[in-house]
Write a structure and sequence with these properties.
290 residues, mainly alpha, 81% helix
């Protein structure tokens, strides 16, 4: 027993030394790589972000408040939050169900399901929006039937929701699948063998194990929903005050040379993005601790 412990200790020590050895690069290389990384972040992340806030407040607080409380701006903010409120829970439920199915069961078409979940990563959001136009537009596959039923999908809220759902499908599922594959099925099998049902097993066993990964996926999904431009731009019709989300409203203001108003709304989106990043980092820290 002591011999085995000694061997195990030796292996761990050798691995630690090997890991430390990879960090002992010449100071010139470390300094160069660090400088390149910091300069890149400075010019392509920090400076644009600072520019947004400087331009937003350039004409004073009164103009800023007027820009973000203007009727069309409030409509865009409300629509963006409404779409996020609808899309994120739906994709969360789908992501959990898909991850559970893929990692806990073996069935035909498993690889196909995994590929389909990744499809939105490969398809341009603009193309996705055009697909919904071809399906539900006035001249689309179901357009005439929807018109007879007095149902409007594109250039209305349902089209924006469908486009947002499509582009954000992978985020929760893709975050949970590797996590649940690593955890295996032993705990669930033990729970079921002790008489617990599937729902009880999920609530008591699976969900506590995936909660931080689930929250991480939800944060990413929410950030993408609020910032989506391409697909929503195609299906929304750019009806000002009705179907313009925050990114679309910013584009309209910028094209009308209302730079202060455009950057004021952009600053709100930046604040939401920063809050998402902070929450994401907290969740990452919690995940590592867990």
């Amino acid at each position: 027993m002591e011999k085995q412990l000694t061997i195990a200790h030796t292996e761990v020590t050798s691995k630690q030394k090997a890991g430390n050895a990879t960090l002992k690069e010449p100071w010139v290389i470390r300094f160069t790589l660090t400088t390149i990384s910091l300069l890149f972040l400075l010019f392509f992340l920090v400076l644009p972000l600072v520019t947004i806030f400087i331009t937003a407040f350039k004409k004073g607080m009164e103009v800023y408040i007027a820009s973000v409380t203007e009727t069309d701006a409030l409509s865009a903010i409300k629509l963006t939050l409404l779409v996020a409120t609808i899309v994120v829970p739906i994709n969360t439920i789908f992501g959990v169900a898909a991850a559970w199915t893929i990692t806990k069961f073996d069935f035909r078409g498993k690889n196909l399901l995994t590929t389909l979940i990744d499809l939105p990563f490969a398809v341009s959001p603009v193309i996705a929006g055009l697909v919904f136009i071809l399906l539900f537009g006035a001249q689309g596959l179901f357009g005439e039937w929807l018109l007879n039923q007095n149902v409007q999908i594109v250039f209305a809220l349902p089209g924006i929701i469908l486009a947002s759902l499509f582009v954000t499908v992978p985020f929760v599922a893709r975050e949970l699948i590797p996590l649940m594959q690593t955890q295996g099925t032993q705990e669930e099998e033990a729970s079921i063998s002790l008489g617990a049902g599937a729902f009880t097993t999920f609530i008591k066993v699976t969900l506590p194990n995936i909660k931080w990964g689930l929250l991480y996926g939800v944060i990413l999904c929410n950030a993408r929903v609020m910032g989506e431009f391409g697909a929503v731009s195609v299906v929304s019709g750019h009806v000002r005050g009705l179907t313009n989300t925050m990114p679309l409203h910013i584009e309209v203001l910028y094209n009308e040379y209302q730079f202060s108003a455009a950057f004021a709304v952009a600053s709100l989106m930046s604040i939401l993005a920063l809050i998402s990043i902070i929450i994401k980092n907290i969740i990452e820290w919690k995940t590592k601790q867990h």
